[in-house]
Design brief:
It is built from 16 helices and 19 strands. It has helices at about 25-30, 50-60, 80-85, 100-105, 110-135, 145-150, 165-175, 180-195, 200-210, 225, 240-255, 325-345, 360-375, 450-460, 480, 485-490, and strands at about 5, 15, 20, 45-50, 95, 140-145, 220, 265, 270-280, 290-295, 305-310, 350-355, 380-385, 410, 415-420, 425, 430, 440-445, 500. Strand 12 (about 350-355), helix 13 and strand 13 form a beta-alpha-beta unit.
Length: about 500
């Protein structure tokens, strides 16, 4: 195959009345969502301070009206009900107030992990109380958090470590090597719980909701965001940024109601895409171990998460992880079984996307899963990495070249390898989706056989399935876009045993 530079046509999405169009904002504004809920009224539960709940009400009121923008890249938002044809009342179906003083006391704790755990417990308790005592049917939880939680409950926040003697006692206690009083035992167990949990508020809260088997998806949002203000400098957003935020919050809320705002138009039927997830544990008692997972996306665009086994998956190559044969087989078998339950037939092709080349042992496990479950399915392994090794520049005399190369431009190296620019100039927007000369994705058909142009086309289409951000196109396909976040949730607490759940519970 000759080396060649080609342009891949922008993939289209499908909206209401099966109408195809490129931009999700245009499609929703013109045709409405692909899966309609009309008529419907959102039943939202809101947890926050009194101020946070009031800000939620004002935000919902504000996005019912148009938010005008003159920026073509961040277009005017027509209003929530005008787009989705369902009602979103500004008065929640249920509210639970957490006092600012309770939050401040928890935030005053010096140890970051204990602080984060205590703050999350305030919100989680409200949800568990509702689950155990209320009969109100809710569609979604809105968790409204003050800026102070964002500042003090994330990995970069200030931290005072527990004394070394205490850590030594925890290790000895866990190993059964220390005789202690009942009070001290409880204290050490509680401290170990803090240490065994993530210091990221978002990931730990999502993980604890999964552990408690809360069936209502949650949307975590900052008080400044509800005010259309920047969380760093507290500056009011411009009109185009207000419109962008309204689009994003609206599309993710609709998706969490269980309906697709849009789907892919030109993706092939019978194809299953799987993104591999590995997340290293940072906890003090299981160093060197990682959690594995798979993200399955169908041709409709909807996703499902499958938790794999925990093990010493780290490779001798830095930041690479590989499964043992049995674990690879078990993980993919879960995916294939789920696919057949959803479609009443096995997939024709299954593409596994990873950031690193697949090991021989790992791939043998995947092949055995296919052989045992659906022997006629074609299995292909694709590695996808952003690369700074290749840059393209436009240099046309007399032409204005400030926007750089096009999104969709592809450099095919050979039948197994190509570079794809998922960021770049978009003619319909008359601007670039990148602030600088963009880097391409380096895409390699690592295992199996498939036409490289078809692989590049599919991956470009998969950049348009980020329901969490209603944008023209993402820089990374959805199979890998949320892998760090999904991995962060699955490793946020110890012994998280989760069932197979839709993607909406992780974003």
């Amino acid at each position: 195959m000759k080396t060649q530079l080609i342009y891949l046509k922008e993939p289209k999405l499908v909206f209401g009345h099966n109408q195809p169009i490129e931009d999700p904002r245009d499609g929703l504004a013109l045709f409405g969502p692909y899966e309609s809920l009309n008529p419907y009224t959102i039943q939202a539960g809101v947890i926050g301070t009194e101020r946070g709940i009031q800000l939620y009400k004002e935000f919902v009121t504000g996005i019912q009206a148009p938010i005008y923008s003159t920026n073509i890249q961040r277009p005017t938002f027509p209003g929530f009900e005008a787009i989705f044809e369902i009602k979103w009342p500004n008065e929640p179906a249920l509210t639970r107030i957490i006092s600012s003083s309770e939050i401040d006391r928890a935030l005053s704790l010096p140890n970051l992990k204990e602080r984060t755990y205590r703050v999350i417990s305030l919100f989680l308790k409200k949800i568990l109380d509702v689950r155990d005592s209320e009969e109100t049917k809710l569609d979604i939880w809105y968790i409204v958090i003050p800026k102070g939680i964002w500042l003090k409950c994330r990995p970069q926040s200030k931290n005072v470590n527990f004394p070394p003697t205490r850590l030594k006692n925890i290790t000895a206690h866990n190993a059964g090597q220390m005789a202690i009083t009942a009070d001290l035992e409880n204290d050490l167990e509680e401290t170990a719980t803090f240490l065994d949990s993530s210091s990221d508020f978002h990931n730990q809260l999502k993980a604890r909701l999964l552990k408690e088997k809360i069936s209502i998806p949650a949307q975590i949002i900052l008080e400044p965001t509800l005010q259309f203000r920047d969380k760093y400098k507290n500056l009011e957003y411009s009109n185009e940024m207000k419109a962008h935020l309204a689009w994003t919050q609206s599309s993710t809320t609709y998706y969490k109601l269980g309906k697709l705002p849009w789907k892919l138009n030109e993706i092939r039927n019978g194809v299953c895409y799987v993104g591999l997830v590995f997340k290293k544990f940072e906890r003090f008692d299981i160093k060197g171990y990682a959690c594995s997972a798979a993200q399955m996306f169908l041709d409709s665009g909807d996703g499902t998460i499958f938790k794999g086994n925990i093990g010493p998956w780290a490779s001798i190559t830095p930041k690479e992880y590989h499964l043992k044969k049995a674990d690879a087989k078990e993980l993919l078998a879960k995916v294939l079984t789920s696919y057949q339950l959803k479609r009443d037939a096995p997939p024709d092709e299954i593409f596994i996307h990873g950031r690193a080349s697949f090991s021989i042992e790992e791939w043998e496990g995947f092949e055995e899963a296919v052989k045992d479950t659906c022997s006629n399915t074609k299995l292909i392994g694709i590695t996808i990495r952003e690369s700074d090794k290749l840059k393209l520049y436009r240099d046309i005399p007399g032409e204005d070249c400030k926007y750089g190369n096009l999104r969709g431009l592809s450099w095919i190296v050979n039948e197994k390898e190509g570079f794809l620019w998922t960021r770049g100039f978009v003619p319909s927007l008359n601007t670039s989706t990148s602030l600088e000369i963009p880097n391409p994705l380096r895409i390699v058909v690592d295992k199996g056989e498939e036409n490289i142009e078809q692989v590049l086309t599919d991956i470009l289409a998969l950049t348009k399935l980020n329901y969490n951000a209603c944008i023209y196109g993402d820089g990374v396909p959805v199979t890998l876009r949320f892998s760090d976040q999904v991995g962060g949730i699955l490793t946020a607490i110890k012994k998280l045993d989760v069932q197979v759940l839709p993607f909406k519970y992780y974003i």
